[in-house]
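Entry: Glycosyltransferase family 4 protein
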Amino acid sequence: MRIVLIADTFPPLRNSGAVQLRDLSREFVRQGHELTVLLPAADIDDSWVIERIDGVQVVRLKAPKTKDINYVSRTIGEFLMPYAMRRNLSKSPLAAQKWDGVVWYAPSIFHGPLANSLKKRSSCKGYLIIRDIFPEWAVDMGLMGRGLPYQFFNSIAQYQYSVADVIGVQTPGNRSYFDSWLKKSDGKLEVLQNWLGKPAADKCVIRLNETSLAGRKVFVYAGNMGVAQGMDIVLQLAEKMLVRPDVGFVLVGRGSEVQRLKTYAQERSLSNVLFFDEIDPDQIPDLYAQCSVGIVALDPRHKSHNIPGKFLTYMQSGLPVLANVNAGNDLSTLILNEKVGQVCESNQVNDLLELANTLLEQIHSDPNLSSRCINLFDREFSVKSSVQQIIKALSHE
């Protein structure tokens, strides 16, 4: 099939969404499909730039800046983004191109107008991959009320849903958010598990044996450190574990909370914590090979269900997890049923401390723990099955 994928993140960006979409794109090509990826680009001089990456046609279209700016400017930029992309696509060699299916990835919630335009032009189906149920999660966390800003963002999200023929959510627990859409639509809702391809085995620039944590059992967190992650409790845990000279913590990545977290660690003399800037995704397996436990952190105010991309990277590398998540999250059930780690749902540091110590004992006593992680990844999070599921949905009459 000839597929077009609309997104707002892709390599050379290194966030989990960019890595996921890179892997998904490679797999579309591997399975014999023709894939074009449409991306907004604020930093190009021309209206469009076309590249070829791993057999994928990547089209970067001039659009307003939406990353690393204040919320108001970002909102305006994202609102204008699909219209700018549509206009500049019409100036490109693909102006009259038709596709057999349109796929788009949320976040962002603003792709609806472009997806709708391409669907109509091609008379084909559209598949919306939902990884971020915004603005609902912002309301859950108290970042937004249900006033005018919420009404604005919700109307944008609802329009995006209305464009889709099929919506793929992360977990069964997220189905309830789409009850009203199902009642008003002929569309289909299904669970599309997160996925991850096999990374290259590049040597990591971070060498823990050359740091103050050499020889320790290391808890690692690699990913975004923003408001949604609730990272404070991780540093509180590290402070509680200062009495254990055999344990350390490594936090790798970027995000709005990084500087505040670094200040917190400095003020409390957390000698067992090291921060590093984000690294190339292909270096992640080598980083994890130096560690003992992967950390999953989600702000407990979340009510939606989330299987973070970093959880997949831990499983892929055979790394058991220590998770601090909102109560009732589908991720908790998965971790406990599969026996691949420990989960705290109380958001209490003493509870997390007890679970951390339990997990360290398990690592020592359970020789099958790592293989269970790898087996779970192979069974549930294959990028091959994700592409097959999307193609089936777009092909079905």
